[in-house]
Amino acid sequence: MQQKHVLIVEDEAPIRDMIRFALERADFSVVEAEDAQSARLAMADHLPDLILLDWMLPGISGAELAREWRRDELTQNVAIIMVTARVDEDDRVRGLNIGADDYVTKPFSSSELIARVRAVLRRSLPGGEDECLEFEGLSLDAASQRVSAGADAVRLGPTEYRLLRFFMSNPERVYSREQMLDRVWGQNVYVEERTVDVHIRRLRKALAPHGFDRFIQTVRGSGYRFSSKSL
Amino acid sequence: MQQKHVLIVEDEAPIRDMIRFALERADFSVVEAEDAQSARLAMADHLPDLILLDWMLPGISGAELAREWRRDELTQNVAIIMVTARVDEDDRVRGLNIGADDYVTKPFSSSELIARVRAVLRRSLPGGEDECLEFEGLSLDAASQRVSAGADAVRLGPTEYRLLRFFMSNPERVYSREQMLDRVWGQNVYVEERTVDVHIRRLRKALAPHGFDRFIQTVRGSGYRFSSKSL
DNA sequence: AACTTGTGTGACATATCCGTGACAGCCTCA
DNA sequence: TGAGGCTGTCACGGATATGTCACACAAGTT
């Protein structure tokens, strides 16, 4: 994988340093900015692949900045992760509505940060926005978050949807329950591994009326695999 | 998954014991150290995959130690989790700034500890390189954990799969039953050596319909060999 | 040939893994 | 406040894999 460029927009120097340290250790190239203006300056030279944006900045808020970038033709496809001290749910929702791809709450561990950065970059890498996945008659539209089996629609809960989306993005490959928890549930939640089984069951059940449950295969002792080929 | 080694650096014996107990129950191999010097000693023998490092140690602080290790070529890639009684935000940032991968605050539950240890180890693992082995028509794909003989698929149990994978990664070479137990079963499980024979048999049986069982050759008095050449 | 040693093979008790239904907690929405 | 949807956990039971044994068989040895 080619080295990725990350722009940090953060006014507090110690946190900036900590983030830079973590990112450079993980082999990212890092550019720093302490406010909106220096951020613009940094972007003029070279567009980053991802921006780590502090929620609170002197002058303009990070949220405003994000909204602005999303409107700009040039920057609208750059991934954004909001960094904030707030734990308020409303802010979180607002942040994501603005167009941030993910959201990290202080205090966070460096490995958590890296994991989220990697996850976002991985997600935004292929083509981008309105992802539309098709698999032998089973189709998933990311924009409308709809799944349809042939003609008729499939009704899925949020978790089942994300699970299926993950599977369809990564077919023909075995994933452990641990890996699935990482990539479908999120890196910072601790849930039992068997929970994966239950959701697999629920997804299979939803897909079964159309016969698509055969795509979800159990690999005993290892995990699960999404594949069109039979066992 | 192979067993991981964890080094605990902690001066208080009861806490050390508690951590050791939790880790061993979760199938990690544990080495203890009570100060910087004994930590160095423990590392000299064998590098751990992860270090649980107490923030406060007699003499040198854990933070100093972490910084030192991060500078050392040999140890800089070993994951570090700081263990501390402090809840102060600044300390946390400072700890992560130093290069710790995560941070656990006393008191902590053993399940939380295990979760964090697992999370950190998982993240520091090298990305999944897609191993794909081929051998005269017999092919094994590590990503999908599939084995196929020519056109049709071969159905294997977990142990047979690992065994075949081991063979195909190390062809043309004789291995004793003991070596095979080490590398396929794991280094510290005790099973009878004859068990290898039984699994060899099962693997041969699965490969036989396609004629590929001839690759698994018995070397009387020594062990087995995987080879395309006959005898 | 008899004996010794090493390996193939089928059977079997057990351990392990996974599918499944049930359930309580938590949301949201009316 | 209650209904209804979603989530994570658990316990049970069935399916499958595992390790060990006993015995058959083969290859050397005396």
Summarize the structure.
The structure is a homodimer of 231-residue chains. Chain A has 231 residues and is of the alpha/beta class. Chain A contains 8 helices and 12 strands.
Written overview of the protein:
The structure is a homodimer of 231-residue chains. Chain A is built from 8 helices and 12 strands. Chain A has helices at 13-25, 36-45, 62-71, 89-98, 110-124, 158-169, 177-185, 194-207; strands at 5-9, 29-33, 50-54, 79-84, 102-105, 132-135, 138-141, 146-149, 152-154, 174-175, 216-219, 223-226. In chain A, the strands form 3 sheets. A 5-stranded parallel sheet of chain A has the order 2-1-3-4-5, with helices on both faces. Chain A has a 4-stranded antiparallel sheet with strand order 6-7-8-9, with helices on one face. In chain A, helix 6 (158-169) crosses helix 7 (177-185) and helix 6 (158-169) crosses helix 8 (194-207). Chains A and B meet through helix 1, helix 5 and helix 7 of A and helix 4 and helix 5 of B. Chain B binds a DNA duplex (30 and 30 nucleotides) through helix 6 and helix 8.
